[in-house]
Amino acid sequence: MSISRAALVDTVGLRIQELHASGKLPGDQPLLRIDNRERAREAPFQFDAAKGQLHRTGCRAIPPDSDSALYGVWEVKAEDPVLGCSRCNPIEAPPAVEPEGRPQADAKPQAGPRPQAEAQAEAKSAGSRPQDDHTVDLLYGFLSIVTQFGGVLRERGQEYRRSRAGAVVGARFEKIYAEVNEGERRVLDVLTSSLDTLAVVLRDIEGGINGEQPDGAGFSAARSRPHEAP
Amino acid sequence: MVVAVRDASAMVPPGGYSSTVEWDPGPQAQSRLNELFKRYRSGVGDCLESIVREYDPVMLEARQGEYRKMLELSAKMNVVGHACTEIGGYDYDERRHRIGSLFGACCFLADSFIDDFGEEATRDYIERLGALLTEGWFHPRTDRERLFFVIASRLFAQRDVLHPIVRQSVLQLYLAQKEDVSLRAIRKADGGRLTRSQLNTLKRCARNRSGHAILVLSAFLLPELPLSYLARLFSAGALVMYIDDHGDCWSDLKDNRLTFMNQVSRPERTLGRLFHTHIRQLASGLPGGDGRDLLIAFLTRYYLTRLEKHRQQRVKGASAWAIYE
């Protein structure tokens, strides 16, 4: 029986919801957070969609009626002609600051318009955040998903590996590996080794978080419940 | 009941308002609007029928009227989405057609959870939608909820939903819906009128409900939403809601639901002013082209048909399930 990709994704999505509803997923982490109100409030600019005007965050000229129509803006593009507030003069500010999704630890709403030099200094400070933080955020994201779905993923992985489709995929992996040249093989080995190292680190971190010994027992097993596969 | 506007003379708004010459996109845009409505009315079913059949088959079998209304809203979203996409400088391709269809169905089901199953169900939905947006958990319990969840998931899969404008617009739309529900508790003081402050609150809520909705749709359709368009599209969305509420005036009053348009003292005159102000802003603020003309043609058609709907329902009585073009 064939099943479309969309239907498969639907089934997985619904199943994850069922698993969470029945308490079979460990922890109380969010699956996906669309809500970014806090970060949007901390963005350097606020765009009033009702009046079509850009303000610096905290500008007192934002009408109360527009509070529910504000959009946090992290970057004002030069090619996007937009009306700036005459009181806080946001267009004068340097264009690029911290993009949304990379929280700025010291971002605070302003009490009112500030000199351009101050805004520039803040933007410079925000822009100086190491790019590596983005990678670290990704690693934390990866960790949170593995933590949350580790047991389920492992169980499904074992079943898939035993299935005919899994065997085909395995054979393909071996064939690809056999065909790559020496240089590519070295890259693959480094990659595999890095992933393995990462997995060990993640297990250690996970063990530490849960007060367990990082003895290599693995968080999947540690998180198994009586009704789940060990 | 179907109200259709087919001749160009219907483009002239009733009443003694200013000339339409400066913004009227003309018969060519009206003709294009007709073609697109025809195309999307027949096309949305291709995207939605199989999903409805899989997850809530009763809607197809026993609630045909409701299903048709969902298709009609999806067709409308496709036309608006088509205009917004062209304004942004892109073609409304097959993927965008799918987004428009899913978005329309999503809005239809969300509105039904709010409006059709009583106050307790409304509160429950608002709370659970909040959890979905802050945590990702929804826990569908009925076929209708499963259908909503699957449609929302498929819509979210079409786009990077963590894009700042996408997530902000989705959240703002949710907050506007939440405020709309909370405002249903507003009651007039003993037989009197609403205060000016209450009326302004209702107006702002109407503005936000549809203003943010059109931004969600546009953010799903366009890779980036320039700030200069964002305000114009928000304004177009707000106008849609004023028009919609005027058309639904009698059914809303029957349901004891107060809106800005059913509480303002001279609604037709107020709507006429709002219509002309918003349309002039769109005509001067959006880049000239097919997209802008299509959006203005759509809004004009919507305005005229809802004026007619309002008049007919005043005479014949309100029906929430009537389908109007």
> What is the subunit arrangement here?
heterodimer
Number of helices of chain B: 13
Percentage of residues in strands of chain B: under 5%
**Count of structural domains of chain B:** 1
Major β-sheet of chain B, in short?
none
Q: How helical, in percent, are the residues of chain B?
A: over 70%
Tell me about the largest β-sheet of chain A.
4 strands, mixed
Structural class of chain A: alpha+beta
Mean pLDDT of chain A: 67
State the helical fraction of chain A: 40-55%
Q: Per CATH, what is the topology of chain B?
A: Farnesyl Diphosphate Synthase
The H-and-E topology of chain B, N to C, reads as: HHHHHHHHHHHHH
Estimate the strand proportion of chain A. Answer: 5-15%
Structural class computed from helices and strand pairing of chain B = mainly alpha
Description:
The complex is a heterodimer of chains A (230) and B (325). With 230 residues, chain A is of the alpha+beta class. Chain A folds into two domains: 37-127, no CATH class; 132-223, no CATH class. Chain A has seven helices and four strands. Chain A has helices at residues 5-21, 37-42, 116-127, 132-162, 164-179, 182-209, 219-223; strands spanning 45-48, 53-56, 70-73, 83-84. Chain A has a four-stranded mixed β-sheet with strand order 3-1-2-4. In chain A, β1 (45-48) and β2 (53-56) form a beta hairpin. The radius of gyration of chain A is 25 Å and the shape is elongated. Chain B contains 13 helices and no strands. In chain B, α1 (27-55) crosses α3 and α1 crosses α6 (143-156). Chain B has 325 residues and is mainly α. Chain B has helices at 27-55, 57-61, 64-87, 94-115, 118-135, 143-156, 164-183, 196-221, 227-247, 249-254, 260-263, 267-285, 290-316. Chain B has a single domain, classed as Farnesyl Diphosphate Synthase (Orthogonal Bundle), CATH 1.10.600.10.
